[in-house]
Known about the structure:
This protein is of the alpha/beta class. It folds into two domains: about 100 residues, Urease, subunit C, domain 1; about 260 residues, Metal-dependent hydrolases (TIM Barrel, Alpha-Beta Barrel). Strands 1, 2, 3, 4, 5, 14, 15 and 16 form an eight-stranded mixed beta sheet that branches. An eight-stranded parallel beta sheet has the order 6-7-8-9-10-11-12-13. Strand 11, helix 10 and strand 12 form a beta-alpha-beta unit. Helix 14 packs across helix 15. It starts with a strand and ends with a strand.
Amino acid sequence: MQIIKAPYILTPDKIIKDSQIAFEKRVVEIGKNLEEKYPKATVTEYKECAVMPGFCNPHLHLEFSANRATLSYGDFLIWLRSVIAHRESLVPKCDRECLQNSVKEIIKSGTTTIGAISSFGEDLETLVRAPLNVAYFSEIIGSNPAAADVLYSDFLERFYRAKKYESERFKSCVAVHSPYSVHYILAKKALEVAKKHDALTSTHFMESRAEREWLDRGEGDFKDFFKEFLNQSAPANRPMEFLQLFEGLKTLFVHAVWANEEELEIISRQKAFVIHCPVSNRLLGNGVLDLDRLKRFDIPYSLATDGLSSNYSLNMFEELKAALFIHPQKPIVPFAKELIVKSTSFATDMGFNSGILKEGMDADMQVVEIPQDLSVEEEIYLHIILHTTRPKSVYLKGVKYE
Ligand SMILES: [Zn+2]
């Protein structure tokens, strides 16, 4: 048994002052005078700190972690063309050591749960061995019906290979790349596998203006792109039909910046989530997600970094800072709290016993320093975002990460 004493414990939505948290693998109790109750426990005191749950980063692409400045930013199609031009050199460049270093950075920056989109299965072993919670999304992509059988069997092989490693902290999940890049039948078949195994699903949806124009009218920047690369003249899916494929599943719709009201209606009805990646959206010129509109449709959202293919960092503190500044109309104090609460407790929404500090939940926690001159208690969330680049300590299932 261990006990941490700290001036603040954020559960995350409640602030508990001058208290203690007793834990083994899971949280045993939060309260006062726990040292007397558990005299054999090892006690650690963190002065001027807050203990809070680790972050959940539900959407990243670890296999692209070698990118720093290879890919071009500013416009979605320019970026996509640069991905196609460089992916064959970029992916092998992120070898075992690069993957392990990325995971280490993720944990050191306070994240204890991730949703990893895997295009090739190269990151499987690293993530099976890593001590954090992993929703491992084997991704299917391909709009050419002639290649569908090969692509589907490759996807199945990766999904079931990951499935063998399932545990309370590792789940084999299904990602359908996007409505513009996956043939309807292929998406349908992959999602039937997800249904059969009650697996979490994820898809990039309505990320760019180009995607909107292409799927609605077969026009826009994607028109030349598909002609050039795939000799394809019509979109692979109609957006509404594509969305209906996710009926009955638990889905993370990633980006949704360009989703229309009809589509949000369906996402809401499916009780699905929208994953907001503000830095990636900014870098690829995709605009800003309307969070108030999501609220009107009663759609829950959380934040993610996306991969290093469209971000400079996998650190959630960076993402939260970006979110604060990219939504200037949001009242900053309650919005900062909303960001921290969502980006920690989303681990629970993803089906892990993590993301909230209370009795029985896994002791996946981070300890962050609090400015000594904090004078208004409810501003603690804002100051954590503003003043933290990395937590002081991270605990995974009760074990301090060194
Ligand atoms: Zn992505």
